[in-house]
């Protein structure tokens, strides 16, 4: 138990360290070395730790690096929020059952749901229009919402009524 | 105790009608609270009775640690089909205790990972993540961290300001009403007795409807809230493909939107609505409450009976 607690603390520490290093990189005037980052952080970390964190950030595509002389210089690709977003996506994608743990605003739609939803949204007076301009790269959805609002308004409503009873 | 010990194992069936009917006829807050309360009582009684069967079953096993007198024929006579039921109850109880532990561990693990992912951000009540995948969820707090709402920029960009207010009101309603806890309880109940699975599905849907109603009340516009839910679902549809929880149940989002476009549900649960379907749903709610009460009585009866018999069988 003690070990897992320590392990937990260590890993959370890593998450915070990654964010701190990224923030330091953002404050840098340009591409900087790991030594610069270490100095910027107050020298509390070992040089190898800083390099390890930078390498991990590189694997997450949160930073980029290029060769400058004998060492690398590092540039941030994402800020702390971007890194958090990246880590969150990993957590959510690994969690096939996330719907039961996290109260998500919306869940998945089947094709039938989508049809029904589009026809419902046209009732609110905005759905059809939004369906058009938000999804400009998807021409099929525009026509789908047209036909859905024209002919399908009654049928899906009755259908859902039947299902819920 | 006779068949009383078996009754709580099947009484969860009384929750089926209300789990099926209540969602659109009664107010989701009252319904969800009722469902969770009934589920917890039914699950606890069912588990208690399974435990009683385990005691009787274990006493029959050679080399068991229980007092020898507990395998007395009188004790075995107290349980119908004691040979089969007693022994079947042992692996069943072990399996459900394990599954319950796994469920709790999974909930805690997901929350921990989500908190860790947010580790580098300032501890604001809302965490906005720059991500092309549109999603939003409520993260409950713990002793060290406060509860917060996590939302991505792509979802916020797709919504108008008033719709964003509805989204945040919805997520905050989850947190203030402790919905994550209710979901965990409902899931544990479904683990304890598989007959409670429809109830868990109804609770999963019920907390979303409850938060929708809260959001609609706070922003003061049901259509606007319906639009926020619908638009968010449609843009999530166009996000990158991923495995979705089968549990989410097809049709949840359209039913939520439909309910928001309809007049607000009556908040009274015990005075059934005047319409016939409302009356049926009200009766279904009563049936579930009755089932829970009956389950509590039978399991209490069975527990007391077994204790009395065991005391009588134990030589002083």
Automatic annotation (TrEMBL), chain A:
Feature: compositional bias, Basic and acidic residues: 127-137
GO BP term (any one): negative regulation of DNA-templated transcription
Highest taxon of the lineage: Bacteria
Molecular function per GO: DNA binding
Region (Disordered): 123-165
Keyword Transcription regulation listed: yes
Protein name: BlaI/MecI/CopY family transcriptional regulator
Lineage, uppermost ranks: Bacteria, Bacillati, Actinomycetota, Actinomycetes, Kitasatosporales
UniProtKB/TrEMBL annotation, chain B:
Gene3D superfamilies xref list: Metalloproteases ('zincins'), catalytic domain (3.30.2010.10)
GO molecular function, one term: metal ion binding
GO term, biological process aspect, one: proteolysis
Co-factor: note: Binds 1 zinc ion per subunit.
Keywords in alphabetical order: Hydrolase, Membrane, Metal-binding, Metalloprotease, Protease, Transmembrane, Transmembrane helix, Zinc
Cofactor: Zn(2+)
InterPro entries in alphabetical order: Beta-lactam_resp_regulator (IPR052173), Peptidase_M48 (IPR001915)
Pfam families: Peptidase_M48 (PF01435)
Every Peptidase M48 domain range: 119-185
Transmembrane segments: 6-22, 34-56, 88-108
Family (UniProt): Belongs to the peptidase M48 family.
Xref: PANTHER family: POSSIBLE SENSOR-TRANSDUCER PROTEIN BLAR, SLR0241 PROTEIN
Protein name as it appears in the record: M56 family peptidase
Annotated organism of origin: Streptomyces reniochalinae
Taxonomic lineage of the native organism: Bacteria, Bacillati, Actinomycetota, Actinomycetes, Kitasatosporales
């Amino acid at each position: 138990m003690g070990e897992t607690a320590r392990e937990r603390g260590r890993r959370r520490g890593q998450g915070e360290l990654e964010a701190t290093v990224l923030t330091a990189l953002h404050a840098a005037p340009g591409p900087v070395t790991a030594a610069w980052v270490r100095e910027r952080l107050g020298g509390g970390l070992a040089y190898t730790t800083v390099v390890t964190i930078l390498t991990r950030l590189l694997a997450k595509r949160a930073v980029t690096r290029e060769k400058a002389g004998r060492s690398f210089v590092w540039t941030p690709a994402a800020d702390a929020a971007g890194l958090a977003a990246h880590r969150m996506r990993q957590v959510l994608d690994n969690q096939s059952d996330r719907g039961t743990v996290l109260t998500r605003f919306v869940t998945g739609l089947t094709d039938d749901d989508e049809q029904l939803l589009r026809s419902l949204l046209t009732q609110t007076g905005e759905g059809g229009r939004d369906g058009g301009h938000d999804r400009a790269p998807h021409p099929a959805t525009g026509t789908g919402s047209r036909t859905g609002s024209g002919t399908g308004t009654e049928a899906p409503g009755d259908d859902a009524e039947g299902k819920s009873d | 105790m006779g068949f009383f010990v078996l009754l709580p194992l099947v009484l969860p069936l009384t929750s089926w009608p209300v789990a099926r009917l209540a969602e659109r006829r009664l107010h989701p807050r009252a319904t969800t609270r009722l469902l969770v309360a009934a589920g917890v009582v039914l699950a606890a009684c069912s588990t208690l009775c399974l435990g009683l069967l385990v005691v009787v079953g274990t006493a029959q096993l050679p080399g068991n640690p229980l007092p020898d007198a507990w395998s007395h024929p009188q004790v075995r006579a107290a349980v119908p089909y004691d040979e089969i039921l007693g022994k079947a109850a042992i692996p069943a109880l072990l399996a459900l205790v394990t599954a319950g532990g796994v469920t709790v561990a999974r909930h805690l693990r997901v929350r921990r990972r989500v908190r860790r992912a947010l580790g580098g951000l300032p501890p604001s009540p809302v965490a906005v993540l720059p991500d092309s995948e549109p999603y939003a969820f409520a993260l409950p707090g713990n002793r060290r961290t406060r509860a917060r709402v996590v939302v991505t920029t792509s979802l916020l960009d797709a919504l108008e300001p008033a719709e964003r207010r509805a989204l945040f009101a919805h997520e905050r309603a989850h947190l203030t009403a402790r919905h994550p806890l209710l979901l965990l309880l409902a899931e544990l109940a479904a683990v304890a007795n598989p007959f409670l699975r429809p109830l868990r599905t109804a609770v999963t849907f019920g907390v979303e409807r409850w938060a929708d109603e809260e959001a609609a009340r706070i922003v003061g516009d049901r259509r606007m809230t319906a639009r926020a839910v619908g638009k968010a679902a449609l843009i999530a549809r166009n996000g990158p493909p991923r495995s979705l929880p089968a549990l989410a149940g097809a049709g949840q989002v359209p039913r939520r939107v439909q309910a928001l476009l309809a007049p607000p549900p009556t908040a009274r649960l015990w005075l059934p609505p005047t319409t016939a379907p409302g009356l049926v749903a009200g009766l279904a709610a009563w049936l579930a409450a009755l089932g829970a009460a009956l389950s509590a009585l039978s399991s209490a009866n069975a527990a007391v009976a077994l204790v009395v018999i065991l005391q009588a069988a134990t030589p002083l």
